[in-house]
Backbone:
């Protein structure tokens, strides 16, 4: 990337500050129980973890919201939580970051989605326990959610759908989000799940990882040429305007309305890819909200993803960190 491009991306990040992003999706809480391991249990061939401390982080669509907020965007989020202590914690954590949670619906019939990971002090995951109700939300909850997101879209510069297939993104919710964006003539972005591919028709951009792209297109994606063909087939199948295929250490492939391009991976060291897709779509949303081209928004996202995967667990990249990676010392 040339210096003029990094200057342009830094300016885009400045223009994006304060722009409004509506995020619709599956809210999760990531719970880490961290301890040290120095022996194997005599009861079974498993490690004994001596508890040290625990951490809670925002996950799923909530992690997307966290990323948009720390990059300088103004965020409103629409989703579903349970009427439990973890739902309360999740909403309090979001509100503490200045994220508007007024469009979130509490469903007493569901638990708040929580992923409990047992992790060693050396960041090695021992086990994961998922607390979730992944059936689609009931009709009454869906109607309230659709009404909330349709109203919230009137205040947004971009609508972003973060689908983790935990019940929030029904066909009706996806359709309402995409239609509301179209009515406002603003971009609609989707981080997809394969079984819901027919939900996303008409979206401005869908961001599958290469495994999801392979599953939708029934193609193996192992090379740049594969990525090119796969993105084209994915766009035809999903009936969307543009596709960004994320390929891990192989970078990204962007198929936009005005052309296509390969973006090489930015990470020097990969610690953990958890949440990297959240960082990608958050940065793209903010770049588009700031008036950038899809190409520049994707380049900004590629830089942000390179920072995210260098750390353990889902993380939120700040605008200052991203500026430094672009060679801009201003914070």
Residues:
């Amino acid at each position: 990337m040339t210096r003029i491009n990094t200057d342009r991306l830094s300016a885009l990040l400045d223009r994006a500050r304060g722009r409004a992003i509506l995020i619709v999706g599956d809210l999760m809480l990531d719970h880490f129980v961290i301890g040290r391991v120095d022996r194997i249990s005599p009861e079974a061939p498993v490690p004994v973890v001596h508890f040290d401390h625990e951490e809670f982080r925002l996950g799923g669509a909530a992690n997307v919201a966290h990323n948009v907020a720390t990059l300088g965007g103004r965020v409103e989020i629409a989703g579903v939580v349970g009427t439990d202590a973890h739902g309360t914690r999740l909403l309090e954590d979001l509100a503490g970051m200045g994220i508007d949670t007024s469009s979130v619906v509490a469903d007493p019939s569901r638990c708040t989605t929580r992923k409990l990971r047992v992790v060693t002090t050396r960041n090695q995951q021992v086990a994961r326990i998922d607390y979730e109700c992944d059936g689609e939300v009931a009709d009454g909850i869906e109607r309230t959610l659709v009404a909330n997101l349709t109203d919230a879209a009137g205040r947004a510069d971009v609508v972003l759908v973060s689908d983790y297939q935990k019940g929030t993104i029904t066909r009706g919710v996806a359709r309402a989000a995409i239609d509301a964006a179209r009515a406002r003539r603003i971009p609609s972005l989707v981080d997809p799940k394969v079984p819901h591919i027919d939900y996303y028709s008409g979206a401005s951009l869908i961001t599958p990882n290469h495994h999801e792209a392979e599953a939708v297109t029934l193609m193996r994606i192992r090379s740049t040429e594969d990525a090119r063909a796969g993105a084209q087939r994915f766009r035809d199948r999903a009936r969307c305007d543009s596709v960004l295929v994320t390929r891990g250490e192989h970078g990204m492939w962007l198929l936009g309305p005005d052309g296509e391009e390969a973006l090489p991976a930015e990470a020097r060291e990969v610690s953990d890819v958890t949440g990297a897709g959240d960082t990608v779509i958050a940065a793209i949303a903010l770049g588009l909200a700031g008036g950038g081209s899809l190409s520049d928004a994707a380049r900004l996202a590629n830089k942000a993803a390179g920072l995210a995967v260098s750390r353990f667990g889902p993380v939120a990249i700040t605008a200052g960190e991203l500026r430094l990676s672009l060679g801009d010392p201003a914070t």
User: Anything to note?
Assistant: The first strand starts at residue 20 and ends at 25. The chain has one domain: 3-27+58-325.
